[in-house]
Request: fold
Amino acid sequence: MTGFEGKTVLVSGASGGIGGATVRQLTAAGAQVIAAGRNEARLDELARATGARPLAFDVTDEASVRGAIEGLDLHGVVNSAGWGGDIETPQDADADVFDRVMAVNARGVLLVTKYASREMVRLGRGGSIVNVSSQASLVALKGHIAYGSSKAAVDNITRVCALELGQYGIRVNAVNPTVVMTPMSAWYWGRPEVGEPFLEQMPLHRWATVEDVAAPIVFLLSDGASMISGVSLPVDGGYTCR
Ligand SMILES: NC(=O)c1ccc[n+]([C@@H]2O[C@H](COP(=O)([O-])OP(=O)(O)OC[C@H]3O[C@@H](n4cnc5c(N)ncnc54)[C@H](OP(=O)(O)O)[C@@H]3O)[C@@H](O)[C@H]2O)c1
Reply:
């Protein structure tokens, strides 16, 4: 994909699997990328490999988000920072885990959007924000009471931000991936008794790769998606069409 020359895109979660793949695809497409996360060693390694600029901040800390983002000239944002929490039934749910999952996945997306959208509005050139949600917001998945709730909040943040920021030419969308075998998910979905029945029900019968998820993120950031805003796009091998 081309068309990103001279455009700066901030990617949170860049030290992780999906965010890292997104940074690689965006830099290959000519974008100037700011690769954000907390693990500075991993960000530096990605920066050396791609030419992206590393930027460390914690999405749960408003002062840290503000200090990192204020003054940046941004065209786009990818909110990929996230935490899977624990696998729990509603009757066993740990309220502290729920709070932490919400703080990273939902409140973190809001805080990054809050400060990044101010800069995009200041520049006055429109832009695009893509939030990495999950299939867990679209259908009920056992054990996903906290995580699914946080991603449902991300979908709603996506729609409300699309409504509020459209007047500035800023589009806001989400992608809702199925399982990608990154460390976040492999410990659970990698168990045969969990993974095999799941894949049997999915029309494409395979796990997503990080590239499978990064490509639609890059598309939603691009001018090819110039009339798309407010959607939550399943990237799920057809799992949620059932
Ligand atoms: N893997 C899946 O199966 C799957 C499926 C659907 C949706 N998703 C979503 O996709 C996104 C990326 O997941 P992934 O699979 O790439 O996971 P990952 O490899 O575990 O990466 C998670 C990323 O989030 C960052 N992060 C976590 N807490 C943070 C905080 N407080 N402040 C700043 N950064 C923070 C991590 O940064 P540091 O390591 O530097 O701390 C890391 O870069 C997440 O939102 C996840 O919920 C994943």
The pocket of NAP is lined by residues 12-13, 15-19, 37-39, 58-60, 80-83, 104, 132, 134, 177, 179-180, 182-185 (CB under 6 Å). The longest strand covers residues 170-177. The chain has a mean pLDDT of 97. The chain has eight helices and seven strands.
